[in-house]
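**User:** Here is a favour to ask of a fellow structure person. Please take any protein you like and set down a full record of it. No explanation is needed for now; the record alone will do.

**Assistant:**
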Amino acid sequence: MSLFEDLQQVVGEEFVLSGEEATPFLTDWRGRFTGKALAVVRPANVEEIADVVRLCQQYVTPIVTQGGNTGLCGGATPGNKGDAVVLLTNRLNNIIAIDTDNDTITVEAGCILQTIQTAAEEVGRLFPLSLASEGSCTIGGNLATNAGGTQVVRYGNARDLTLGLQVVTAEGEIWNGLKGLRKDNTGYDLRDLFIGSEGTLGIITAATLKLFPKPQAIRTALLAIKDVDAAVHVLSVLKQGFGSLLTGFELISSFCIESVRQHLPTVKIPFEVNKSPWYVLIEISDHEDQDHANQLVEKVIGNAIEQGVVQDAIIAQTVQQSNDLWHIRESIPFAEIKVGKGIKHDIAIPISQVSAFIEQTNALLQERFPGVQHIVFGHLGDGNLHYNVGAPDGQEEGFLDLQKEMNTIVYDSVARFDGSISAEHGIGQLKKDILPDYKDEIGLALMRKIKRALDPNAILNPGKVISSVELY
């Protein structure tokens, strides 16, 4: 018997793919990484996943876990050796339980994020994790990368929204930590260890997540501002005025909006793009009523305009208008694809330093690469920037060849501002080799020790986060 035949015995012949059937799962969403695989398997439940892992451990065969394949760093794409098994979680798509008294929802890892949001809404609750890819990304992938999204300023990252996990270990054991407890000080926090580990320490198969009361009123507004300094000041003003009601605070450059207008003409943009160089998209969630929300938004934003920190504002009056404003923000990554392949940086900077970082880093890039386009947007409420760089007009050919040098300029600048080279997309293949240059050495050594302890044969997503050659 071969591993391929053993896998067929475990999950069924029709759920072990090879050849052309496997091809769609071998390239990442951005088309940057394409690998090879011995097989693509689609287990039906956690027990089958455990069986698959035990087989791979027996044959010392790498396992790459893949959910919705919406990652941006190649973390769910196999390498080029062709010796890996790609394990899909899309058949584990059940909502296991909803507990409205405990405000929790327990789901399998292959559940689409939007499905979880809808299930929460149907019982009068909110699951606040929200991403542009929410219609196709899975909760397992969200947890594997500790996704952030647009409501981090109020609710936190995926880690903050998770109470318990079920995980298959590298030995094929099933750890059932799905308790819906908000207090549990019984030793090391294994949950937080697996979240953000990108499938290199264990395979997340289910999660118990926090639910929140469904807001009675949601108000959205787009604010025109003169510069990023003003945006940081506006954030302070709105935090003071709205308190915990402020759920979203997105920084968007006019270049991003212009790209959406040019390349995605069906997206409604209700203003002149060149009116201001920068915009802030905000959202508040009010638990009183619509009138209270209206009065509060008009008061707080009105005061900001009177103070001169906001130049102008569009306040959505209907749900459709609110959706239209958010659609602009969510369309930016798709407009970027139309513009051409850019060099992307998912980074975190202390909020107080964001303006200085952008100004100084832009200048450094222009000095070295005159005419590059700065495609900057992100979740300013938590300091997460998508600091992307596009080719000068008419110079797209060979632009990606500049990535290594450009990354060095950007990431060296991030380090000077005590930032992080990865905020919410993970490390994957894309940043694995440069992580040692920017990660504290003691922290990196501890990561290696954890990897060796939990995955001694290095079969779980090898070549991601930590290079296998660094482990031994």
Observations:
- The radius of gyration is 23 Å.
